[in-house]
Queue: 3 jobs
Job 1
Amino acid sequence: MRLLQIIDSLEAGGAERMAVNFYNYLNGVKGIRAFLVATRKEGILKKELKIPSNYLYLGRKRAIDIKAILKLVRFAKEKSITHVHAHGSSYFIGSMLKLAIPKLVFIWHDHYGNSEFLNERRYSVLKLCSNNFDGIIAVNKKLADWNSKKLNCTNCTQINNFVQLAENADENVKLEGNQKVKLICVANFRPQKNHLFLLNVIAKLSDKDLSLHLFGKHFNDEYGNNILELIEKMTNVFYYGSKPINREILNQASIGILVSKSEGLPLVLLEYAEAQLAVICTDVGECKAVIEDTGIIINSGNEDELLAAINSYAEDSTKLNSSALKFHELVKRKFGAEKIIKQTIEFYKRCS
């Protein structure tokens, strides 16, 4: 089996990290050789590729970029690709590849983060392209059900995300501040992630011995600018930009937090668990199914609940440490890489 993972960029997003995770892990599986193509942009995740020689960057400029499509087709033929695993929005160029080489087994992976607002999802092009899908992987049940009902491919399954957390990075990051309790939030600056809500709550805890540390991409838009303006007024909030998240960074914190308005199955929760952090998260997407009773779940946008959650951990180190350990053990059991890879390979075979 010769597998090609396709992703539009190698920036630090959930779908991007999963494409890299699959690529790296599958290259260690007997009988499989894995390849990776980034179509539009490279990014910080390129440094994490374990076998750079099996990677190709297309430099795609537009939706229908003939030069990029031909480059992809040549690569697939040269490497004798048998299966294509396209992540997120890369389904379009993946469909072009399938049309050029019909014998390919083509699987699309749906990482759609706004699963709380599926009624607003635009999918006319996706539905057309789904005629070329041999199978669909969805990160949660809600997406799996939506795909089965809305798209022209009924061979759909739910497979959980998994993590391969790097031990360190080329650029070491030391969390700033000398506060006793450090909260970390890893989320790109998108309205869906609700940073402004989080910052408003942290402002009400300014008298507490705690700090908040934000990692994520700023898209140079009004939303991101508003976040930075708030941070400048706060002495216990620090922003580090977009960085590859590794164990060394996470181990400096004690609480991982995510207050999104909507999610699929956020990879960052699994990273928090891998680093053995206590967790606070909103009840959206599959978050509650991931955390179960090992962390604190709050309703989206509820300031009182978030205040109480942060205080309960900050004021009780025994509870914090116990929750962190239970969350770590739960995720290791349910979202272990070996288990998820086995399920994925079995699905590849069923689609063949």
Note: The domain at 181-334 is CATH 3.40.50.2000 (Rossmann fold).
Job 2
Amino acid sequence: MSESYSGPRGVPITQRLQMTLDFCKLPFLLLARILSPANKGRSWARAANDSLFRFLSSRQWDIHTFTHLFDPTGSTYVKWAQKNKLEVLSDDVGFGGKLHWVGPRRYDRVLLYFHGGGYSFPVSDQSQLAFLLALQRDLGKSGGAGIAFLEYSLTPYHPFPTQLNQANAAISHLLEKGLSPSKLILSGDSAGGNLVFQVLSNALHPFLSASAPPTISAPYGGALLISPWFAFDPVPSFAENDDKDLVPAAFWTFLAEQVTSGLPAGARVYAEPYAADAAWWDGLDRLVVRVFATAGEVECQRDAIVELLGGPVKARVSDTTVVVEKNGVHEDVLNAFACGEGEKSAEYWMMVKWAMEVFDK
């Protein structure tokens, strides 16, 4: 007999017992991980943050149990904005998506951010929103920009192409406000980077089950990606970095199952950029002018990021840069922000400089 759930955030008794047992082990597992070679050279705060992330992503819980631990994106944003004395500014964009602003609305220059979390987890105030707030402040030194992020519906409750439809709607919303696509940076981490490429794929090859791609009069100014989730199936760096990354190979497979279980026929190539052949990306230069991405040296997604962006993408968008962070894990710069060390990251300042150049062009 199957276990019943009290809605999407309910947790069955067997999973509650498993969580209790796992959390009893937490102090010992954390200490062992903090002192492991994987955290050599990191501060205690960073080692603790990374070790906790690794602990959570190594649990064999079901998706309902995982999502029970986190507040929804909307409530996280409201609490975070109030804590940071920011005005709560949100726009309904259609298809159930919401655009949340970090700082004031503006439509002359915008960085639109899609948060990561395997499409199954909400936004993090400690890493992603902290990063966006710093970016909003530091871009202000060179004309500033509007910073907005999309609250999209989560898998497995809302399968593809829900998130793509919401991303298209968010972009169209900004363009309808008068924003030039040349002054729009599409950005995201992990699954958010994946979503950027879903948008581009759908613009190149409109998917019949998805909403029509936004109509643009010029290419987007740029795509800024942090450890984009490009591969669902294992690539060599999965095995090489399984013990080193914050996200072990098994968890990548688990997250991919949440996405692929709802895919309609023919959709895999849209949802998994690494699965597309080189010719799929023909015409990409008509959609985006510049691409900048980071990849951790010891993250599982490294090979997929380097091969896709350094090969087929760079062949079509010559101004493509991939920075492989030495000893970096998945979303290395965001994990630095999570423990208050984000602005010590050289990669962060590369992103700031790159974004300034896009907007000032």
Note: Residues 13-34 form the longest helix (22 residues).
Job 3
Amino acid sequence: MPVRPSPQTASPGAAPATARPTVASYNEWDPLEEVIVGTARGAARVAFEPALAAYYPLGDPERNFGGAPFPQEDIDRAERQLDAFALRLEKEGVTVRRPEPVMHHEGYTTPDFAAANGHAQTCPRDVLLVIGDRIIEVPMAQRGRFFEYRAYRRLVKEYFAAGAQWVAAPRPQLAEETYVPGYTTEDTYYDFADHPALTEFEPLFDAASFTRCGRDIFCQPDVVTNRFGIDWLRRYLGPEFNVHIVQFSDRYPQHIDTTLVPLRPGLALTNPERPFKDDMADFFTESGWRLVDAVPSVRTGPPSTRDVSNWISTNILMLNPETAVVEAAEEPLTDLFRSLGIDVIECEFDAVFRFGGSFHCCTLDIRRQGELQSYFG
């Protein structure tokens, strides 16, 4: 069914009301009205490639692994949890859309690289960036995710037909020049800032490397996002937005949504295992923000676990400034939120983790109430 703006009513004789944009989202906390929830159907494990080198030191025999389908029972269990999550959002009054499953089991070749197979369409937050009424297809650094945008094209075309802006960042080549040769995360190169995984050959970024606070957008250069990509987005958005680079002490950073998690104006979770390396903490606190240490997940193993971060607990979705969706087993985080005056909706989601993330990763805000504002002095 085509997506159309919600009709507006007006009293007799009044000027026509302006229809609310179909796509409108400026931050991570305003009341959620419409969202895309991903799917695990069609998912596969990507083969080793240069963009994954951060997680496999030189000499690690697992650098030779090839791609493979996920076991069907894992897909089915994850999909049941995704379906239950989508149903719960609908019960909360949120319109939920789902992508079209794309089978990622086949390999593909471009003029610049070959991939044994693709990955999934479980995490729309990685692939698309919504800022206001703009939907941006991002230039992802992983070869196995090159065609992932295809799962969302039907939805994006509907949103465009209903008035949204739609742009694709420059499609990357992902050639050998894109990656730092022989990249490793051995102790010699512990400081990521001094030894990035990507060159500046072309603009690259995942959407989940950015978090939105109205006119101020925060991002970190990481294993899938380079400064060329940040510069491209900054120039595209123009002076209406301030794109800030934030750096944390993190051996292999990827995405910001388990490191800096805005909850509402003036309140954000931070990761005590990944402290700020720059003065951005002062930028927040001097603007009246409270930064609260998150708690690690009870679902996962030690920090070396490759399938999922041990901070997956913080990958939450804010339905509004007073309500968060939290994984059902994460009682320490639930207790923390309630101490902050935030209600919690608990959903089981552990089967979804291995497909790329939790509630924030597996959703994409399409429309939230509220307008563009500045939350910093």
Note: Confidence is low (pLDDT under 50) at residues 1-17.
